[in-house]
Backbone:
């Protein structure tokens, strides 16, 4: 177990600052693309993407807060904050499925809408990976490397299941409070009768593998950049 006052060391804090700058610039691009589309068309159709980005920021904010917290404080809040993190985490990679909304529309070039949605989807994915990396590091420092990767696999599979619940059954993170009975019933039905719901497990497994490979790739690229030449 780590005895350091914070999960982020000084070099990690500098990297975190640089990451915030890059993510901020990328998010600003998405906001600008949506705002310009509204100005151009006088329609607010894609404004919902900004809400999705806000939801994607929540797990990243929570994992950053845990990393910056002093050791004793972090130990007390790790489980409850981690549970809230897991609840909101699927909102970040969920934005990938907003590509479903891409189709030719009057007033805006098709390529513009493609760039707009891809920008938001990219930001959602990067926020997911940055947040997951924070949480994996916290688990690794407490339970070891193997447990941290088991946590990653479980988190991404649960996130992919959450993507299915959100995209196809139209549940969201708030339904665990506002609509828990229907949410629990639909989840339990699919767990007890998996053969009757191949789409559920197809989406869960396919997106889970995709997200895991993407996360592993990003991690390996980060390590390569840290290798001295």
Residues:
């Amino acid at each position: 177990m780590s005895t350091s006052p914070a999960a982020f060391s000084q070099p990690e804090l500098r990297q975190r600052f640089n990451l915030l700058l890059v993510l901020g610039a990328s998010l600003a691009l998405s906001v600008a693309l949506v705002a310009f589309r509204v100005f151009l068309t006088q329609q607010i159709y894609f404004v919902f993407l900004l809400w999705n980005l806000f939801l994607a920021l929540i797990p990243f904010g929570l994992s950053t807060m845990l990393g910056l917290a002093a050791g004793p404080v972090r130990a007390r809040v790790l489980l409850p904050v981690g549970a809230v993190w897991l609840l909101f985490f699927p909102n970040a990679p969920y934005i990938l499925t907003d590509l479903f909304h891409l189709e030719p529309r009057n007033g805006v070039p098709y390529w513009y809408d493609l760039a707009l949605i891809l920008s938001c989807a990219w930001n959602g994915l990067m926020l997911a990976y940055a947040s997951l990396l924070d949480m994996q590091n916290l688990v690794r420092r407490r339970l070891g490397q193997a447990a941290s990767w088991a946590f990653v696999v479980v988190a991404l599979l649960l996130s992919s299941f959450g993507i299915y619940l959100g995209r196809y059954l139209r549940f969201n993170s708030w339904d665990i409070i506002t609509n828990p009975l229907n949410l629990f019933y639909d989840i339990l039905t699919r767990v007890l009768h998996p053969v009757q719901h191949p789409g559920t497990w197809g989406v869960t497994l396919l997106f889970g593998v995709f997200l895991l490979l993407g996360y592993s790739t990003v991690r390996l690229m980060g390590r390569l950049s840290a290798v001295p030449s």
